[in-house]
Structures are given as C-alpha cells and as structure tokens.
Amino acid sequence: MLSVEDCDEILAAALPAYGAGDAPRRLLSLSENATYLVGTGADRVVARVHRPGYQTPASIDAELAWLDRLRSSGTVTTHAVVPALDGRRVVSVPRPDGDRHVVLFTFVVGGTGEERPDALPTEELGRVTARMHRDVTDWELPDGFTRFHWDAAACLGPGARWGDWAAGPGVRATDLPVLDAAASAVRARLAAYGQGRERYGLVHADLRHANLMVGDDGSLTVIDFDDCGFGWFLYDLATVTSWIEHEPGAQATAAAWLAGYLTERPLTEEDLAMVPTFVMLRRLMLTAWLGTHPGSPPALALGTTYGAGTGDLARRYLHDPAWFRLPVPAATHRKD
C-alpha cells in the first residue's frame, strides 16, 4: 500500500522541475498510484506519483506516446502531458528503494462517467473503445515502444501480475477445483483464439466509466492509461463489468457496450463467443487483486463476498451456455 507521506515527499521533490515548487497541492486519490491536484484556477494540473516497481521511465514514455497518437489522429480526446521546464515528460525522484516517477497532466474540467452516468451511456463507451482499437491496428509503433502484455501468463500464470486468485479473500476451499477448471478452460480458449492483429494489440485495460471524464458540454476525455499494454481487444469489454459480473444487470451492460462497439468496429462470431471467457478472466484477476491490495477501497468494501462469489461464476462459465452469450445482428460481423 502506498504511503501518503512518502508520495507527498516525492511530489514535493519533483515539482521544482516544473517551476511549481510552491504550488498548493491536494491529494485526490490513493490507489495504485497517488493522484494530486496541483495549483489553482486556470493553472491547475494533475500529478501522478507512480507506485514503485510497476512501470519504468521507458514504459511511461510509451504510454505518453500513445496519448499523443490518439490526440493527433483525432481518434479520441485524452489529457495532455505537461512537461518539466527542461522538456522531460517523466521526472524521476531518487529514493532509498529506487527511483520514483512523476508525470503531470492537464486538468480536465467535468466529472467521471461514473459520477455522470446519464451523460455517458454504455453504448458510447463501447464506441470510444472501438475507435481506439481501430486506430491501434493502423499505427506503426515508434522505435523503443515498450509496454507489458496482458496475456494468459501475465494474468493467470505463476507470478501473475495481480497475484494468485486462489489467495483472494473469501475464496472457498471447496471451490478450488471448479475455479481451477475454469482457469484452465480460460487458458485453453485463449490459446485457441490466438493473438492475431485483429484480436490482440494495445489496449487501455481499464476503460470503465470511471476513466472517462465528461465535460459540462458533453465532451469526453479518456484518462488513466497506467494499465495500458498489449492484450486482447475484447479484454476491454470485460473491464466494463468489473466488480459487477455477478449482478443481474451485468450482461445487459456488456450487451450495451458491444452494441456501441459494433457501430465502429466489426467482430466475428469467434470473437463474440469469447466474451464469457474474457469476463471470467477479469473476474479471476480481480479476485487475485483483492488479495494483493487488502487495504484498497474495493477490498475494504467487498470483504470476502466477492471471492466467495467467484466460485459460483466459475460454475456458470463452465456449465451455463447462456452466461454472457450476447446475440448481435449478423450484419455487424467481420469475416476473417
């Protein structure tokens, strides 16, 4: 868990590089990273203090290059990077346990789609995501571009990035066999599905309502690319049902996202058949994440109920053919 005091010190050490050493600052959120509002009025910016060990300066530079690409191509609006006085876009602060990295972004006026749900229908979230995927398949990545992969090994393998689902809070010992069977089925289906260019590429990996800002004029700005990396495009669908996969309306939420997505980018029957697998994959990953982030707001709010419910969803994934099977008009399909 990040320390507020530690992040405060790191930000204070970084801000002089931006000519903002005396600027007022206020902590906005403390989760995977620490996010601060710096300055006042028209001079406000948002500072992100990275947690240790997750990203490198090179991988952060790659994230920022993607933001540049999305804005310059007109694909979507993103927040812009605020460089330091010497032009650096990532300022590193030496610490006893290694360098810590700070990035400043322009301040976006408005509220998140989570705060303003009426202003951001789930269909629109699907359309935004599809435009990003479509642009990625046309983009020749710059030299030195490096981001991690959200492949089966990173998500479910030994040493998985978010931990072991079996150690998630609330996971019942009696459910371990069915959970293991579900994880094995997910891995097998992902391997069979493959990583073709139309299926696998650069993804946001957390493109939920909470990570789109809605302006007072209805404009949309995509934020929080810290988890972006190479993965299956339909993994982005599964992020929309994060934490609610078990709820009665989750399948309708996924269907609405997909309806919007398909207006911008077609999919094949094989793609659509993979939706349950990506939802189950994300559920297993989030169960693991709760175990490695015990003091996080989701962990404190959910307790053991989420992990206990993951076994029930594993049974549905394995045995209920209707679970997250989303019917879509054939006219929207792509033929590989």
From TrEMBL:
Note the coiled coil stretches, chain numbering.
none
Keywords of the record: Transferase
Q: Name one GO biological process term.
A: threonine biosynthetic process
Q: Which GO terms describe its molecular function?
A: homoserine kinase activity
- Span of domain Aminoglycoside phosphotransferase: 28-262
Q: Please give the Pfam families that the UniProt record associates with this protein.
A: APH
The reply to whether Transferase figures as a keyword in the UniProt entry is yes
The record ties this protein, via InterPro entries, to:
Aminoglycoside_PTrfase, Kinase-like_dom_sf, Pseudomonas-type_ThrB
UniProt family annotation = Belongs to the pseudomonas-type ThrB family.
Q: What is the name listed in the Swiss-Prot or TrEMBL entry for this protein?
A: Phosphotransferase
Origin organism of this chain?
Answer: Nocardioides zeae
